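Fig. S4 source data, part A: sequence.
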Amino acid sequence: MTVFVALLHSIILGPGRRVVMSDLRATCERIGFRSPRTLVATGNIVFEADHETAADVETALEQAFQEDFGKHVDIIVRTADDWRALAAGNPFLQTSVDDAQNLIVRVMRTPLADTALADLHRRCDAGEQLRIVDGDLWIHFPGKPSTSKLVSGLTTKRLGAGTMRNWNTVQGLLDMIAP
């Protein structure tokens, strides 16, 4: 048995229609995942499964999501150990104490190459700081992320499948997988 962290790229199914976390937990249980528990209502779920790899879990969960909700959503999955490594790799630890809501990690399905930074740096207009750590993109927004021109460059089309979480969510999920 392995503990996994799954992150949905979007929980919006259509106008005025969002995934309810209890329904997401039910989907996990239906396909044999055990002890599903969610963190906030934004598509973060921790569960146990017998699958051997995160890729296997991604495939099973995306297929079940499509069946239950009628829409494909990219779901990024990490083992608990991989999630701990992601959190430990935070390149902006000083910032994470005082500005956790503006410290974002874009968790990637396929690791980003360092060459992706050149295009992203051109979009930085307000002092954003960027680092790629183990293929995931870490960003510190000195102001509200929603006001940054960088956000328009953080799409699946440009970077590949991934989803963003702030440091508070990273820490909350870390707490959920604590032994």
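Fig. S4 source data, part B ends here. The mean pLDDT is 92.
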